[in-house]
Amino acid sequence: MLYSEKVMDHFANPRNVGEIENADGVGEVGNAKCGDIMRMYLKIEGDTIVDVKFKTFGCGAAVATSSMATELIKGKKIEEAMKLTNKAVVEALDGLPAVKLHCSVLAEEAIKAALNDYYTKKGIKMPGLETPCSGCCEGCCSHE
After folding, report:
1. Does the predicted model carry a pTM greater than 0.70?
2. What is the CATH number of the domain that holds 23?
3. Tens of pLDDT along 77-128?
4. ∠ CA 76-137-129 to the nearest 5 degrees?
5. Cα–Cα separations (whole angstroms), residue 40 to 32, 50, 97, 117, 138
6. Which of 129, 123, 36, 121 is nearest to 81 (CA)?
7. Enzyme catalytic residues
8. Into how many domains does the chain fold?
9. Which residues, listed in sequence order, are joined to residue 37 by a DSSP beta bridge?
10. CA distance from start to end of the chain
11. Rounded average pLDDT over 31-40
12. In a domain, 134, yes or no
């Protein structure tokens, strides 16, 4: 299994690792088939994600996709973060082996779960965040 240089870099030197105390939104997702668990923390001011951190228990691809996903939404408007897809994460990493694509799905789901938590705390129901899985792969089972 070959990984791109970007995947290896984000695995060896992950960005935004850790947790945010009193985070505005926290999302946790997992894949029972492979054992990966991702937790995302968001700090939001106005409509901007001013900080994002993650903790991931899983393989190198899970760490790399978590790291890249945080980089893609940090400093962005919530609206932009809601549009982040697993495909965008994969492209930003210059690809992933097919058997590891579920890791990018988890990264997308973790962000959307954190955004859903943020809106739930505010008493707002956001369409499209209730079931974040796009169903793009066979390996996703985080909400079965």
Report:
1. yes
2. 3.90.1010.10
3. 999 999 999 999 999 999 999 999 989 999 999 999 999 999 999 998 877 6
4. 40
5. 18, 14, 23, 11, 23
6. 129
7. 34, 103
8. 1
9. 30, 57
10. 28
11. 86
12. no
